[in-house]
Amino acid sequence: MEYMADTVAIVRHLRKHPGLGAQAAQILRDADDGRHHIYLSAITLMEVLYLSEARRIDINLDELIQRMARSINYEIVPVNTDIVLAAVGVDDVPELHDRIIVATARYLKRSDPHQRRGD
Fold first, then answer.
1. Looking at the domain 2-117, which fold is it?
2. Residues 6+ apart with CB under 8 A from 15
3. Edge-to-edge, what's the strand order for the sheet holding 74-77?
4. Burial 52-83 (b: 16+ CB within 10 A, else e)
5. Would you say 91 and 31 are in contact if contact means Cβ atoms under 8 Å apart?
6. What beta strand segments (E) does the chain contain?
7. Domain boundaries, the chain
8. Nearest Cα to 106, choosing from 92, 86, 76, 88?
9. Could you tell me the CA-to-CA distances from 84 to 3, 75, 97 in Å, in that order?
10. Reduced to 3 states, what is the DSSP secondary structure of residue 71?
11. pLDDT of the chain along its 119 residues, tens only?
12. Considering only CA atoms, which of 91, 82, 88, 72 is closest in space to residue 109?
């Protein structure tokens, strides 16, 4: 299956943090084992950069990018005009980073999966 991960979930997964919910933890473990495909918004990269520079998390941008690059089961989705426009309708999520992540998930759900991956 395909899933969209938010920043907190992916950081907690990479650090094996006990605060990650059981269902999310299982999905991400399964993705590591090749059973799921996980999308990350490029906004997650920006958020990790900000949080690591502020010393609020102990994972840095290079580490995240390297981990994602080593797996075909993780894909970083660029923030494009269509995703920003999709964020206009995300009224129930006040935080900008989270709005972009939700908009990215909605965009991916509507778009052709073969076009996304270049198949």
1. Rossmann fold (3.40.50)
2. 58, 59
3. 2-5, 37-41, 74-77
4. beeeebebebeebeeebeeeebbeebebeeeb
5. no
6. 2-5, 37-41, 74-77
7. 2-117
8. 86
9. 19, 19, 11
10. coil
11. 999 999 999 999 999 999 999 999 999 999 999 999 999 999 999 999 999 999 999 999 999 999 888 889 999 999 999 999 999 989 999 999 999 999 999 999 987 554 544 43
12. 82
> What's the pTM value of the predicted model, to 2 decimals?
0.86
With 0-12 / 13-18 / 19 or more C-beta atoms within 10 angstroms meaning exposed / middle / buried, residue 103 is buried
Tokens linked to 12: 């907690």
d(C-alpha 21, C-alpha 43), whole Å: 22
- Per the listing, tokens 């939700």 go with 102
CB 22 within 8 A of CB 58: no
